[in-house]
Amino acid sequence: MHIDFENELNAEQLAAVKAGDGPVLVLAAAGTGKTRTLVYRVAYLVEGGVPADHILLLTFTNKAAREMLDRARELVGPQVSGLWGGTFHHLANRILRRNAEALGYQVDYSILDSDDQRTLVKRIVEELGLKDKSFPKPDVLLSVFSYAVNTEQLVEDVAMDRFENHPVEVGDIVRVYHAYEDRKKNLNAMDFDDILTNCLMLLEGNEKVRERYQERFRYILVDEYQDTNSIQYKLVELLAAKHRNVLVVGDDFQSIYSWRGADFRNIINFPDKYEDAQVYKLETNYRSVPEILNVANECIAGNPEQFQKELRAVREQHRPPYVVRVGDGNQQADYIIDKIQEYAREGRPYNDMAILYRSHFHAMELQLNLTRQRIPYVITSGVRFFEQAHIKDACAIMRIIHNPADELSFTRLLGLLPGVGPKTVMKIWNLIDQRFSVANLTARLKVQDAMPKKAKPTWEKIDRIFQLVDEENLRKNPSEIVFLFNDIFYDQYAIETFDNYPRRSEDIEELINYCGQFDTLDEFLNELALVTNLEAEDAKGSEQQEDAVRLSTIHQAKGLEFGVVFVLWLTDGMFPSGRSLEELEGESEERRLFYVVTTRAKDDLHLMVPSYRRQRDGGVQYYNPSRFVQELDETLLSEVERGYF
DNA sequence: GTTTCGGTTCTTTTT
DNA sequence: GAACCGAAAC
Hints:
By secondary structure, this protein is an alpha/beta fold. It is built from 29 helices and 19 strands. A seven-stranded parallel β-sheet has the order 13-14-12-15-16-11-19, with helices on one face. α12 (230-239) links the parallel β6 and β7. α3 (34-47) packs across α4 (62-76), α10 packs parallel to α12 and α22 (456-472) packs antiparallel against α23 (478-497). It is globular, with a radius of gyration of 26 Å. It binds a DNA duplex through α5, α10, α20 and α27.
């Protein structure tokens, strides 16, 4: 199949797609066809004779990678299939599974999600006798650890900074950190950060492995480069060291992940790092009407230290974005609902509209109102599909089968039994020498014996699953394991435990289906840990692509576009968030977030500015309009006032 | 000594 | 909605 690059791309895109070998930086402003450019670049390489399995495509979500691959396949055909595409974590995990032993892990290591991490740290704090009202909470500790790892600083230094004004011994925090590191090793488990750092360590320390991958990846493409942290930066640098064909795409204006160690200076400094780098700019915006782009251009102009880029509109004049002043959250909801119904009457599908916000809780009262008015919506909630209690319960049994040292899953599983709490679990866990192997009959009998009377009958049922796994090699059939677990035990448990049983039961059914596409437990568990909210949602309901309004945080809406966008709670303290303003360069990052949200809109943008919020205690909190709205030139906006404020 | 239950409090952003 | 705490129940 011949591809007509000249006609299907504009001059800016074409230049980037046809860039020669060597390092390339593509500065792609919002809505300028960044994805298109990457897809055509892949097609261009494959058509030029580069075998697809020598190309590496690193993206921000696995979904993005899949979409790009699908589009590339449409262009060039099945020969793109061997291409490696996915997130950094995905790639690192794949490399580690093949080489984990070199780092002292077993290949069946578990991946800890944030819930597991929290449980682990909580236990350590208790064990070290540090539990005290003034001692930082597990979440805070974990964010310090993670930030230190991802910015390659000492935990000590980050903690010193973070707790400057708190009466906390930094030494204690470091002790918790070391204990946490030890415990993970003992559990044969890695957290998200370990996956990246261990992969980097492996490549740095092992010449043979390093050279194998350096040889293999002749072309490396990196999407969203502005959101890479220094570990990811080093990974790319290392993998590209031999062939030096590294093409990175990004937009420093859209860097919104510095709180997890991302550093937009990676993209700013790319041309210094690679002196022979070719630089291309994409500035022609096909997405938004000029009125929206004016707002976007103006809001970002004040941020220092950036590549100068200007969004150029090609679309026709339309109308300026609205600033909507309302009283409280309910009036905000009323306005939005009216507008949505109006748009719907004009024939705009619901799924062309989005309601975006800074933090998940901003959307709560709106959800109630949407439900009441029967407006269909989908929400990417804060809790990920695979991290909901009932899903984790069902996965615990698979995880303990897979990794016998997985204490967290063992605890979780046994904790479901009646009359069994943390103490009993620990007693049993120690009794079997902290290893529960399905194949070890003695261990299984020991558990049986130690089980309190009340729990014995239930345990016997669950043990039957282990027996089946052992005898009939159910490891190849994750779907069957979950089915049995649910059938024999969990369904009944869920009826008694959850007041929203029907929904949870549906989720379990979906999980059983979802597992069906994996041939081994191993494969499924790998996928499980690294799948994002958006992807899980796709997986569970691909057949029911409903027409519904999307509710999402701005972070999760990255890369998406909608005809109409409503932005909630544009007040100082909510957006920009009060906490981020206390951080170094916090305001700049919030402003970039505002830039990201404005550039999601194609036709109409509604900036919602409530003036007060009722609090739990009955008091009322008043807000000033967001500085990001105030700094805009009034002539760029249309003002709407609604309700009492 | 443990588990379970009920009431209270709080919400940044995520691979 | 879920995490935490204290008190009742086993």
